[in-house]
Design goal:
about 200 residues; alpha+beta; three-stranded antiparallel beta sheet; 4 helices; elongated
């Protein structure tokens, strides 16, 4: 019930017809009806707790001149894996993938397409992976770093056979999944599928 209004007819106060509690706007009134006066016999679920979301960018980088793939070893004896890592707060996923590749492998890359977006929800948190396909920004200057630092032990360019033959110790199965997929002409989706807005940390042009 509207208790009063201004000259334009806008509602200034709402009174609940069930318990007569007053509200200054319609939003508060509707929230009150939903939470305090559900239909008889209906039990509302408890308020959903905040669920943490952790986002990562994984990079499948191929050098077109020899079709070798880029691998990194983040820590000693952990094995070789895809360049990539956590996306920073307010960071464009594309910028995060390019940044992580430069930090871990020492190679500047250009993202050419999207391979997959994967989500792993759990009761405590949710993990989200953007898996990108890319190539070196400059073929003449794309040697992987070999000096260990805070970001990684180093990087290397490996053939598909190096990875599939078992001659390299891998940290995870992702190189075994994505390197053959790309080498055999698997679908690389256009980046237009990824609609990013509001990011404060973007890829520098």
């Amino acid at each position: 019930t509207t208790e009063s209004g201004d000259e334009s007819g806008n509602e200034l106060q709402q009174k609940c017809p069930i318990c007569t509690k007053s509200f200054r706007n319609v939003r508060g009134f509707s929230e009150h009806l939903f939470h305090d006066h559900p239909p008889k016999g209906l039990t509302l679920p408890p308020h959903r707790p905040d669920v943490q979301l952790y986002s990562f960018a994984l990079m499948v980088i191929r050098r077109p001149t020899d079709n070798k793939f880029l691998l990194v070893q983040e820590r000693s004896r952990r094995g070789w894996w895809l360049p990539g890592g956590g996306i920073d707060s307010a960071e464009d996923p594309i910028a995060g993938g390019v940044r992580e590749t430069l930090e871990e492998a020492g190679v500047r890359v250009t993202i050419k397409g999207l391979l997959s977006i994967r989500v792993n929800p759990s009761e405590q948190f949710t993990r989200l992976w953007y898996i990108f396909y890319g190539e070196p920004e400059d073929i003449s200057d794309c040697e992987a770093k070999t000096a260990p630092d805070h970001e990684s032990v180093g990087g290397c360019w490996a053939t598909l056979e190096d990875v599939t033959s078992g001659s390299l110790r891998l940290r995870g199965s992702e190189p075994l999944e994505w390197f053959p997929y790309v080498a055999n002409g698997g679908t690389i989706h256009p980046m237009s599928l990824l609609d990013v807005f509001g990011a404060k940390k973007k890829l520098k042009s």
